[in-house]
Amino acid sequence: MKWLLFACLIVVLSFSSAQVSDFKTTDFTVADNIAKLNYGHDLDNLPILAHHLTDKLDSDVEKFRAIYLWVCQNIRVDGNQGNRVLSKRGRFKNDSIAYKTWNNNYLKNTFKRLFKQKKAVCTGFAYLIKELCFLANIDCEIVNGFARTATTNTEALELANHSWNAVRLNNKWYLADAIWACGYIDNGKFIKDYNDGYFLAEPVLFAKSHYPLKKEWLLNDELERSGFYATPIIYGETYKHNIIPEYPNELVTEVVKNESIKFQFKELNNCDTNKIKLVFFIGKNEYNLKIENLKKEEATITFTSKLKHKGWYDVHLKISNDIVATYTFKVISKENAQ
User: CA geometry: angle at 151 spanning 194 and 286, to 5°?
Assistant: First the structure.
């Protein structure tokens, strides 16, 4: 499994249908080819780069696509800087003034490394996309907030740990995360592996792993940070398959052994139900749980399963052998159920 990356640090929004499917009739082939043709272009003159990426494109969404894809293909994740940020975050967690002072100086060095070495943490990715969009006359903002991953201590985040972008296209705001789209870290090494699911991502799905400091950038303004941390864990593969886990809606759920547990998710692509699995691990060994009562109604898929023994289980939903959601169950006996 590839772990999601994170490392770093009023407008009226219309998010109800703001997602890439709004542009399902748009052909991004030309924009993608322009991004590829400009591979390796330096950052010495951003106006020239922005011109090369957007001048031959007609619509703002195509221009944004070329900018976004170029950044994903040409900027590497600075893993060393990311580890340094995490270290300093821990050191200054009880001294916000000292952290802010350090962070201001750190950002200056971050931008130097971005322009000289094409390496950055999330702030650098978001900043570069915003600057190129500004030069292309596209409204784009940096959104700072919290990110949840399989390796993040989701109950202990006190300072914002991630940055991404919001872009306005056709008078709607859309969300995108370039650093999570560009690849992943494996044993300290950055591996390019583009994930298109983070481009104009479905905002309900995006909100399951991104919580902005300013709630104006959140689709569901009723979601509090405690609820954000309590939802099931999702992965880069969740965006790749473009599914939205809906039930169970909490990360940790108490269930009774041998009683049916309902699972439900919404598919935004056409999911092959034969490739759905529910598994848990004991050590390195993987075990399948029996899927029962599977139904597909329009874009919603539901099924049930059972856990037959008491204890704690991390249960993983798989599609085409990719883990897309993780749930934790505390299984109790019927006698102990309230």
Answer: 85
